From TrEMBL:
Residue spans crossing the bilayer: 101-119, 139-158, 214-235, 247-267, 279-304, 310-332
Domain of life: Bacteria
Protein keywords: Membrane, Transmembrane, Transmembrane helix
This protein's name: Tricarballylate utilization 4Fe-4S protein TcuB
Organism per entry: Marivivens donghaensis
The gene coding this protein: tcuB
Amino acid sequence: MQTDLLQEARRQAEICNACRYCEGYCSVFPALHAERAFSDGDLTQLANLCHNCRGCYYACQYTAPHEFDLNLPQALANVRQDSWEELAFPRAAGKAFQKNGVLIAVASVIGFALLFWAARVLASVGGEGFYAVLSHNAMVAIFLPAFLFPLVSIAVSLRRYWRHIDAGPFRPAHLIAALRQAASMKNLKGGHGDGCNFEDEDRFTHARRAVHQAVMYGFLLCFAATSVATVMHYMLDMPAPYRLFSVPKLLGISGGLLLVVGCFEMIRLKLRSDRTLGAAGAFGGEVAFIGLLGFTGFSGLALYAFGQTAATPTLLAVHLGAVLAFFLLAPFTKMAHGFYRLTALTADAGRSRK
């Protein structure tokens, strides 16, 4: 990992450790104040505990023009971004996406959409509904490896992270505690429960917490829709297409709406935020991921709405292209941050109970 980023984060963490004004703000500061010296692993753990709410920056008396020139949110964001690149598997892909996020996302969606369009033009597969465009077996052959790859990639990355921070033995109880925090987005509530200052230093809001929850639960609902449809297809002998008021469609539509609204609002908040308090050079990659996720939800809703029209082949090609691009790029986008944060919260739960 980059030594200069770690050294700057270490300098600022040592000053914060001496001050302790922000002790109750979030999970970062109790963990920070528990240490007297900070290893590279300690700094990586602190960075992944940080949710970049920025409340500590606006409360700090040692920011510029003070000679200490503290900007802890940016220092931790830089270390966090670097850790995602260095611990990614394969590492080269992590570095490539972070530096060229928008171009890779756009090229991937277009490329995969063209791939599916070619599959439709070159082969007459028959079938009903979407399977008249691309057979069920073809979808499974393409998407099963694409689904397994990010799982393996993220698992290897998190194993590297766990070892790097020297978290010790894993305990299911610690994971349960971490899941409770993640489900409520506890660390985005702010030090006094008034929200965070992500948009404006004088304005405390829960807007960022709300859009994170919309995106998280929207994604989980879409995943649940796919899982239920899989069970219905293979175990209950109820293949697609499904009616509007079926469980897969109700889950998918509600999840898609949450994704679209949440991603749109998240981009809006990012455009209004102060970029000097985030990771340097990461803005493009972050917006690319959010845009790709939101577009995946939007194209799915469009497919639901116009799935029985002449536009079906085109819409299906675009949607499946977006889904495939999302799966293959997920380990190297900000999608990975949710897994790292959950792992960091799990490790923190273990250390706080010692």
